[in-house]
Amino acid sequence: MGKKMQIALTVNGEAHELLAEPRELLIYVLRERLNLTGPHAGCETSHCGACTIEMNGKSVKSCTVFAAQANGATITTIEGLGSPDNLSVLQQSFREHHGLQCGYCTPGMITRAHRLLQENPDPTEEEVRFGISGNLCRCTGYQNIVKSILAAAATINGAKEAAE
Amino acid sequence: MNDLTPTPEERTAKLKGLGASRKRVEDARFTQGKGNYVDDIKMPGMLHGDFVRSPYAHARVKSINADAARALPGVIAVLTAADLAPLNLHWMPTLAGDKQMVLADGKVLFQGQEVAFVVATDRYVCADAIELVEVDYEELPVVTDPFKALEPGAPVLREDLAGQTSGAHGARRHHNHIFLWETGDEAATNQAIGDAEVVAEEMIYYHRVHPCPLETCGCVASMDKVNGKLSLFGTFQAPHVVRTVASLLSGIEEHNIRVVSPDIGGGFGNKVGVYPGYVCSIVASIVTGKPVKWIEDRMDNLMATAFARDYWMKGRISATKDGKITGLHCHVTADHGAFDACADPTKFPAGFFHICTGSYDIPVAYVGVDGVYTNKAPGGVAYRCSFRVTEAAYFVERMIEVLAIELGMDAAELRSRNFIRKDQFPYHSALGWEYDSGDYHTAWDKALKAVDYAGLRKEQAERVGAFKRGETRKLLGIGLTHFTEIVGAGPVKNCDILGMGMFDSCEIRIHPTGSAIARLGTISQGQGHATTFAQILATEIGLSADSITIEEGDTDTAPYGLGTYGSRSTPVAGAAAALVGRKIRAKAQMIAAWLLEVHDGDVEWDIDRFVVKGAPERFKTMKEIAYAAYHNAIPGIEPGLEAVSYYDPPNMTYPFGAYICVMEIDVDTGTHEVRQFYALDDCGTRINPMIIEGQVHGGLTEALAIAMGQEIAYDEIGNCKNSTLMDFFLPTAVETPHYTTDHTETPSPHHPIGAKGVGESPNVGGVPAFSNAVHDAFRAFGLRQAHMPHDHWRIWKIANQLGLHG
Question: pTM (2 decimals)?
C-alpha cells in the first residue's frame, strides 16, 4: 500500500477527480468507483481484451494500466460510444450480424473496433482480423464479428460519401 | 376480407416464430455494456473473499498461521478447514458421488487447491492478506500419470478413503482407483475381433483441456440475518440444483435460499459444478452478516475449477477385408484428478461415452472405463459437449481412420459402408442406445459433393508427388468426420444429478393485452434463450415473439429445472415450452368457442387465432382470447391464462453432422493453415438459423483450439504449466479460419417440435475433423496416430520422426 494519489480523468466527456492507491488498476477504478461496468476483467494479463477502453486516442487494456498512469487522460468506454436512443453504427451492426453471444467480450471488442475504424476507415477482412487480434472471443469464432465490423465500415463510408 | 387483410404468410412472419432468423433481444444491453454479470453486482457493505492456494501438488499441511493476516487493517476473517469442520462444511459432496475438500484438511492434493479463505474489505487488502498467511507444508511424492497412479507402490492420495474397497460406482481395486464402469458384451466383442480378417489397434489420447470461458467463476453470497434468507448470485449453469445443494449443505431450508444466475459470460461446462468458493462465500456471509463476493482470477480458473477430458482410450476395431466393421473394443483410463468431481448423470460415471460406436452399424462392442485419482485438479466436465461425448466421437473417428489405413481403403468410403442406414432408425446400438432418427448417407454425400472430395484427393496425390520430387514443402490434409451426438439429458427413469431427475420446465403467463412472460428452468450462457424460446412459444400460441419476455435463472421465480449443459436446453426446456404453449392453446380453444358461440370442437387453430371450421371469417385472435380470459365470466372456465409444464423426455436426441477440413501443413515449421472448413449439421427442426450458424462458428473455434494447441499439462512434480492465457491457447481472429455451414433437417420423432440441440455439435465433430486433417496430411508417409494438441512443435516432430526433414 502506498500514499493515495490525486487523479483527474475525463471519462466519456465527464470530468472526475479521485484518490487512488498507486497500485490501483484503471479497470477497477472505472468499474467500481465510476460504476462503468462495461469493460470487463477477463485475464488481468493483457491477453483477452475484455477490458479494452480508449485512452488518449489509443486502444488500451485497462487491466494492466494503473489509474495513476491515466492521470490527466481522456478516456472513452463502451458506455460513451452510443446511447439507448442512439446506438452507434458498430453497436447496431453487431446486433444485425450476430456479432456477439454471451456479451462478455463485446464492450471491449466494439471499443477496439471503433478505434480500428478511426485508424483504418476502409479495412480489408485480413486487416480487421489482425486489428482485433488483441481481443479474444470464446463464443462466436469471430466470423460474424468480422462481418459486423466490415458492414459498419461500409455503412459509415456510405454515409460519408452521400454527405459529400 | 380485403386487400388489407394479412395473408397467412404475413401473419406467420409477424410471429417471428420457428425458423425465423430473429435478431437477438439480448444484444441491446450487451452492445451498450449494460449486461449484468456477477462481478458487476455491488451491495452495501460488501466484502471480498479470496483463497490462499497450495503451491504444491501433494503435501501435508502441518500448520497454518494466519495471525499476521488477521492483524492487517481491513481483514475481517481468515477461514481454514478447522473453522469449517464444526459446521461439517470442510468437505462437500461432488456431483459424481465422491467428496471434495472445501479447504485443505490435513493435506493438499493438487497445485492451486484451496487452503484458506481470506475475507477483507476490498480485493487489494484480500491479496495482501493472502501473502501474510503462513502455511507450513511437508512435500509428499507426486503422481500425475494415471497409469503410474495404479502401480502397486504408488503414493496414497486419498487417505480419507483408506480401507474403502468400494465407492459410488462399485469396487475399487487400488488405493488410487475410483471405479471400473463397463457396458456391452466383452466376450462376444473379443470373439468378433479374434475371428476378424482385419484388426486395427491404437491408443488414442484426448488430452486435458479447460473450458476457459472469458468470464471466470464467481459469486456474491448475502445472508440476511433479519429475515433469515440467503441470497446467492453466481455463475451457475444449474441454479436450481445449486439451491438444493446449498440447502442440504447449510441446513438452511430451501425456501429461505434464493439463487440467481445473472448474465453469464460463457460457461461451456466450467460453471456446472459447485466450487469451494461458493461454500466459503456462504459461510463467510453467515459469519460476518455481510455480503461476500468471490471472483476467480484467470490463474485460479485454469488451475482449480473444472478441467475437461484427460481420457486414455485404448481401442481395437475389427472388419472384413472389404471394410464391414464387425466389432469395437475400448478400454479407457480416465484421469479424474484429486477428487471425482465429474459432472455426469449419477448412474453414468463415464457419462455417455458409450455412444462411441458413433454413426456406424457395429454389431458388437464393449466399453470399460477405469477412473483414477492423480495429483491434478478435479473436474471432468463436459466442455461444450454432452457428457464425455466428444471423447467418444474423437475415439471412433480416429479408430475409423486407423482402420482405413489398415485396410488400405479411402476413409470416406469406409464410413459410407458402415453408416447406420436411414431405414434402420430407431436404431438400437450395441452399447444400449436407441438412436431416434438420422439420414447419414444423405448428409455425407452432400458434404463430399460440396467440397469436391474426389478433386481434393486428386490434388492431395499430386501434392505428395510434388513433395517427393522436392517441388514443395507443404502437405495437404483432408480431415473427415461424421459424428453422432447424444444430447438432451434426460429421461428421469435413468438420468439424475444428485437425485434430481433431469426434466426441465416452462411456466407462462399471458397478460390481458396479449403479451406474455415465460420462465424456464434453464439459464443462458450466451446462446440467446431469450430470443429462441420466445420463438418456440410464438409458433405455439400465436403471439409475436416480440411480445414474449423470457426469464431464467432466478430460483424464486423460475420453475425448477436442471440447467444448461449437454445441449439440453432445446431438447428438454424447449420441449417444455412447446407443451406449455399447447396447454395455453387448449384453454384458449374453449374461450374462443364460448366467444364465438360454438362447440369447442367446432373451432380450429390457424397460426394466431381460432377460426370456426368452414367459416374462416369468424375467428378470435389469441390477443382477443387473452383479453376475454381476464374480462369475461365464462361458465366452467377459471379466469386467467397461464400454464406450467414439466417435461420428462422419453429419450435423448441424436444430432449428427458431416465435417470436412482441408489443411495445408508446412513440414519444416509445423505451422498449418485451414484452407477450407465445411460443416454440415443436422439438429432436427431449426428454430433460429442465424443463432445455429453462430453456435457452429463458436464451437468449431473451440474445437480448433483443442485440436491445435490448447492443453492443461503438468510437469512431474505437479506444476500446472498452462495457468495463464500466455500458455493456454485461445485462438484469435487471425488463427481462426472462415467456416462454411450447411444443413440437412431430420426432425426428432419424439420431441414436440422435432428439435435436437446444436450448441455442442461443432465441438464434438470439430476436434476429430481438425485432428484427422493433420493425420491425413502425413498418411502417405506412414503416420497412424499422433496425440493432440497438434501445435507447431508437435507437428514439426511428426514430420521429423517420419524422416521428412532429410
Answer: 0.97
